[in-house]
Amino acid sequence: MVKILYFGRLSERVGTQEEHIDLPDNIRTITELKAWLNTYHQLDGILDHDTVKTMIDQSLNHKNSSIIGAVEIGFLPPVGGG
Amino acid sequence: MILISDTPFDPGEHLNQFSKANISAGAISSFLGQVRNENGTVKALELQSNKGVTEQGIAQAETQARERFSLIDVLIIHRIGTMEIGEPIVLVLVAAKHRRDAFEVCDFLMDYLKTEAMFWKKQTGKTGSLWIEPRAQDYQDNKRWS
């Protein structure tokens, strides 16, 4: 079971900020996860945009890292506070 | 000190406490960001964060500021949750010996907060909701420090 986090406009598109999913065994990388979620949630490729960053277990800047053993994976659209 | 708060805060109260706690500083600069009404078209602003990572990133920006400028103390308060028109969103207070460092650190930290800090901002108005992302000018401002 892995926790998936969606932030900003992605959370609105998916319909939740957080979900827990039992992923199929063949989903082992970020790229595979994005493709799987794209079909699962019918996301029209929004996770593939260059501006969307990925976070694995609170650590940023993973392009196509392994997600084997990951507890939490986050998808982050462009940020901006203030 | 960095505070990410889901409840409203009083900027004046924090400024008073901060200045009293930093009597070695000859200069205290402040920046207050608040929800603007955009001529009556905006009703509220909602901010999300990822608390641990967001705080960690701001702490790194503060460390960079301390390495780069001569400063005594910093307080950053940033709201999350839903805010109404006129409510404070962000307060940055900087104590330094002299004014130039105080002004520049405030500017440096605000450029970080506007373009790199992990917040997501949604504006709700008469015509619906809109996720607000940094403007080209915000990124350009932040480049001044690289």
Task: List its traits.
heterodimer; A: 82 residues; alpha+beta; 5-stranded mixed beta sheet; 2 helices; 5 strands; 24% strand; globular; B: 146 residues; Aldehyde Oxidoreductase, domain 3; 4-stranded mixed beta sheet; 4-stranded antiparallel beta sheet; 4 helices; 36% strand
Provide the CATH architecture of chain B.
Answer: Alpha-Beta Complex
Mean pLDDT of chain B: 95
CATH class of chain B: Alpha Beta
Helical segment count of chain B: 4
Tally of individual domains of chain B? 1
**Could you name the ranges of chain A where pLDDT drops below 50 across 5 or more consecutive residues?**
none
Q: H/E element string of chain A? A: EHEHEEE
Total number of beta strands of chain A: 5
Strand order of the largest sheet of chain B: 1-4-6-2
- The amount of helix of chain B comes to 25-40%
Shape of chain A: globular
User: What does the radius of gyration of chain B come to?
Assistant: 15 Å
What would you call the shape of chain B? globular
Number-wise, the strands of chain B total: 8
Taking the alpha carbons of the first and last residues of chain B, their distance comes to 24 Å
Largest sheet of chain A: 5 strands, mixed
Low-confidence stretches of chain B: none
At the fold tier of CATH, the topology name of chain B is Aldehyde Oxidoreductase, domain 3
Structural description of this entry:
- The complex is a heterodimer of chains A (82) and B (146).
- Chain A is an alpha+beta fold and 82 residues long.
- Chain A has a domain of 46 residues.
- Helices cover 23% and strands 24% of the residues of chain A.
- Chain A has a five-stranded mixed sheet with strand order 2-1-5-3-4.
- The termini of chain A are far apart.
- Chain B is an alpha+beta fold.
- Chain B has a single domain, classed as Aldehyde Oxidoreductase, domain 3 (Alpha-Beta Complex), CATH 3.90.1170.
- In chain B, 37% of the residues lie in helices and 36% in strands.
- In chain B, the strands form two sheets. A four-stranded mixed sheet of chain B has the order 1-4-6-2, sandwiched between helices.
- Classes of the chains: A alpha+beta (82), B alpha+beta (146).
- Chains A and B meet through helix 1 of A and strand 3, helix 3 and strand 7 of B.
